[in-house]
Design brief:
Layout (H helix, E strand, L loop, with lengths): L9 H25 L4 H29 L11
Helix pairs in contact: 1-2
Length: about 80
């Protein structure tokens, strides 16, 4: 993918960024679930997840304002 990144459209780039945030949320959620009863670690991952959700929301809003849709999935395949 790195070699093709310069050929992506803005919409495709935003789509990949949104997907990256989504993957990060899933990753940190799995780590939080693995933390067991350690409340400090659970809180750390909870905060990180909230940050990632904020990033994803901002990117979705940007995508919608630029392209009149939040549907980004159809254009991210390169």
């Amino acid at each position: 993918m790195e070699k093709d990144i310069e050929h992506l459209t803005l919409e495709q780039t935003l789509g990949h960024a949104i997907e990256s945030e989504k993957a990060a949320i899933e990753f940190y959620t799995s780590l939080k679930d693995f933390a067991g009863i350690n409340s400090l670690v659970i809180q750390l991952f909870t905060n990180i997840i909230k940050d990632e959700e904020t990033h994803m929301s901002v990117l979705l809003t940007l995508h919608e304002s630029l392209f009149d849709t939040q549907d980004y999935l159809s254009l991210i395949h390169i």
